[in-house]
Amino acid sequence: MQKESAVARPSAHLDADTLRQMYWIMLLSRRTDERAWVLHRQGKIAFHISAMGHEACQVGMAFAIQRGVDYVNPYYRDLALVMALGVTPAQFMVSLFGKVGEYSSGGRQMPSHFGYRPANIISGSAPVATQVPQAAGLAFAIKYRQQMGLVDANDATQPRLALTCLGEGSTSQGEWHEGMNWAGVHKLPFICMVQNNEYAISVPIEAQMAVSNVADRAAAYGVTGVVVDGNDVLAVYDVAKAAVERAYTGGGATLIEAKTYRLTPHSSDDDDRTYRSREEVETWKKKDPILRFQNYLLENSIMTQAELDDADARAKSIVDAAQAEAESTPYPAPEFALGAVYAEEN
Amino acid sequence: MADKNTPMREALRMALMEEMERDERVFVMGQEVGAWDGTHKVTRGFLEKFGARRVRDTPISEMAIGGAAVGAAMAGLRPVAEIMTINFAFLAFDALINHAAKVHYMFNGQFKCPMVMRVASGWGNQATATHSHTPEMIFAHFPGMYVAAPSNARDAKGMLKAAIRDDNPVLFSESIALYPKPAVVPDDPDFLLPIGKSDLKREGQHVTLVAWARGVEWALQAADTLAKEGVQCEVIDLRWLRPLDTALVFESFKKTNRCVVIEEALPHFGVGAEIAAQIQDNLFDYMDAPIKRVNAMDVPLPYAAELEMLALPNAQKVVDAVREVL
Ligand SMILES: Cc1ncc(C[n+]2csc(CCOP(=O)(O)OP(=O)(O)O)c2C)c(N)n1
Ligand SMILES: [Mg+2]
Asked: How many domains does chain A fold into?
């Protein structure tokens, strides 16, 4: 299996260290995420929204771009994606509490509206899909700078593409269509990854669109469209790598649809038992992307069971420390609410 | 059945249900109104009772919800569109402002636009700046729109029923914090409250407190506190921001000569500013003190719970404002 795909699949060239790193991010995201649910149940935090089940498509995508350099406009479910770009469990924990020094907004923004300048992560607003035309604008700026000779198109220390993500339900927004069209018309270095988990809160995909694949719409925008198994981290890496090459070499935009499933309710405000059967959820738990990648790593002798266990123990202790740090951090001073409204203020 | 203590979410549910039973042209549409019973559970059980034809779960497309409501209304239906929160109604703004509010005027009455857009509104649950607006006054800026903002369960029922039966487009704002709060609600299926009629909530001769929606609660609490010091507040609930009924406010002001407006929204260009302008314009000779406004702080709303509380109005801030004008 390894052999026959080695030519076509960029993932076949990933070294063992990178594969272990990918697994580590998926695991760390999962353990951080699980802890957030516990904190919510304990009444310590107001809100949590989860990436559980989506880790493979997020990490597979992240590892294909120039991490920390290329622009990323994530959506609220992208915890594993932003962790792959450098956000730590401790940073995320502080954001859950909205405490002093919160990395994203100083405690002004809701958690999971990730924004982190050092990694070129741009924060979204509450309405879904607003990030899509904005990512098209970032990609537009990249192309503009290159065309104007302000940067070298091959300079890997500069952003060379904009990546944005959203759920399949959010593609019903006008902003999604307008952003995709913009990226197509201007042939931008732009990637939109739709994480299709079959539901938008309770609304199933059939009530959202009359096509079977979101990616089928790519043709209408004149961009490349591709569907991928979003629970297979390496399959996602492969299509992502092709999209990145296309973006870096002037080939235009790509719409990637990663088919996946969320393993939790929509958010801490939701009870999914009213609209998803337990059997359905159980079926998908068997396809958990983390278990699947574990099997791959074991089968290909990239990690041993002992190493997997050790990674889990390490992740747990990092999450424990992150929680302790967040809990001992103070809340922002009242005056803090008043600052930074305009460019001249801090 | 008899009139009984009912939370606002139930009162709204009754109103909608009665109007759907009364008139087959009335239908509801919006995100999560069916299988999920509505974001705020106002349409609980509707899918089962009325079926999927009249209870439409829509795609996440506020612009299409707004635009389709305008179209369906012009075609003779009476759509009640639900938008999860008023923040997302910004995405339907063009449909409401450039179309719904103009249809009757621009067609010289050939078409009407009898639609209601129900929106949940308000601050105070750590939903932050882009999730916590109370921008009713923006919608009320435009002639051709009506804007409702009930303060209690009873009014909510009578106002929503009137809105659905009216031939004009109505933005119907429901304060999230008020959904669980009960009041005695009439079960009469023809209980209607007239559009654009304000309400005297409490009599007093020293100062006029003008409020609507959640602000009424703060005004009444402040009035209780101040009464213990011998200050009698008159409290007026506007109920509607358009049509804006100033009759009771003016009458009251002639007696008290002082006014505080309580507004959950941001201060600039708000309803408070409008009330103050109209009072000075019409009742200049009766003014004994500057008109004060109690608003949210003029910043985007922060996340951290304490910061959020700091930015929001409350009863104590109303008490402080009244002391300033006495
Ligand atoms: C404009 C707008 N309308 C409604 C909402 C409320 N809302 C938040 S998430 C969500 C569902 C999104 O589903 P999907 O795009 O499939 O993403 P998923 O959560 O399934 O990953 C909705 C309706 C919103 N945030 N913005
Ligand atoms: Mg979804």
From this structure: 1
Q: Residue A325 class from Cβ within 10 Å (0-12 exposed, 13-18 middle, 19+ buried)?
A: middle
Distances in Å between the Cα of B39 and the Cα atoms of A49, B17, B43 are 16, 17, 9
Is residue A279 in a domain?
A: yes
Regarding pTM above 0.80, the answer is yes
Q: Which one of A75, A109, A209, A341 makes the best mutation probe of the B interface by having the most chain B beta carbons within 10 Å?
A: A109
Nearest CA in chain B to A273: B36
Confidence grade of residue B308 (pLDDT, cut at 50, 70, 90):
confident
In CATH, the number for domain B199-325 is: 3.40.50.920
Residue A15 in domain: yes
- What pLDDT is attached to residue A6? 45
Place of tokens 């997302």: B88
Average pLDDT of the residues in B173-201: 97
- Residue count of chain A: 346
Quote the pLDDT of residue B1. Answer: 55
Q: What are phi and psi of B119, to 5 degrees?
A: -135, 140
Is the CB of A194 inside 8 Å of chain B's CB atoms? no
What does the alpha-carbon distance between residue A116 and residue A100 come to, in Å, rounded to a whole number? Answer: 15
Q: Is A262 a catalytic residue?
A: yes
Q: Are B133 and B121 in contact (CB under 8 A)?
A: yes
The β-bridge relationship of strands A162-167 and A190-196 is: parallel
Q: How many CB pairs under 8 A join A and B?
A: 111
Range(s) within chain B of domains with CATH label 3.40.50.970: 4-185
CATH class of residue range B4-185:
alpha beta
Q: How far apart are CA A222 and CA A216, in angstroms?
A: 11
Ligand 1 pocket by Cβ (under 6 Å)? A 77, 126-128, 166-170, 195, 197, 199-201, 266; B 31, 60, 62, 84, 88, 91
Is A260 a member of any domain?
yes
Please check whether residue A193 is in contact with residue A253, taking contact to mean a CB–CB distance below 8 angstroms: no
Q: Output the average pLDDT for chain B.
A: 96
Q: How far is CA A123 from the centre of its chain?
A: 12
Contacts from A17-21 at CB under 8 Å and sequence distance 24+? Answer: A18/A63, A19/A297, A19/A302, A20/A297, A20/A302, A20/A303
Closest-CA residue of B relative to A210 is B59
Residues of chain B with CATH 3.40.50.920: 199-325
Q: Is B206 a known active-site residue?
A: no
For residue A164, what is the domain's CATH number?
Answer: 3.40.50.970
At B66, give phi and psi (nearest 5°): -65, -50
A67 is a catalytic site residue: no
A274 closest CB neighbour out of B36, B59, B126: B36
Q: Using CB atoms, pick whichever of A110, A175, A202 lies closest to residue B303.
A: A110
The candidate with the shortest Cα–Cα distance to A11, out of A295, A288, A242, is A242
Element (H, E) at B89: helix B86-89
Residues of B in contact with A202 (CB under 8 A): 32, 35-36, 57
Q: Are B247 and B232 in contact (CB under 8 A)?
A: no
**What is the number of helices (H) and of strands (E) in chain A?**
12, 7
CB within 8 Å of chain B, chain A residues 75-114: 98-99, 105, 107-111, 113
The answer as to whether A319 is a domain residue is yes
Answer whether residue B97 shows pLDDT above 90.
yes
Q: Whose CA is nearest to atom 12 of ligand 1?
A: A200
Structural domain containing residue A52: 2-338
CA distance B9 to B1: 18
Question: Which residues neighbour A279 within 8 Å (Cβ) at sequence distance 6 or greater?
Answer: none
> What ipTM did this prediction achieve?
0.89
